[in-house]
Design brief:
Layout (H helix, E strand, L loop, with lengths): L7 H14 L3 H31 L7 H7 L5
Length: 74
């Protein structure tokens, strides 16, 4: 269970959309979260990896090596 507070303007937009389409506000909130969760996770992991590289705890792998390793050439 998750409860969120939205600004009035967004709440009204969501309400109008739900009424016009016959779907619930919960449906649209769930869809929005699902569509953006992958992006948010990718950003988090990329920022974490970058911090590890900058601190010297990890080394970057050159793109050319990745291409060869996974057979992505030509």
């Amino acid at each position: 269970m998750l409860a969120i507070r939205l600004p009035d303007k967004i709440e009204k937009r969501l309400d109008r959309l739900a009424k016009r389409t016959g779907r619930t506000k919960t449906y649209y909130a769930r869809e929005a979260i699902l569509q953006h969760l992958d992006d948010l996770e990718d950003i988090y992991y990329a920022e974490k990896a970058l911090a590890e590289i900058r601190s010297g705890r990890s080394k970057p792998i050159p793109l050319e090596k990745v291409i060869r390793r996974y057979g992505l050439e030509g």
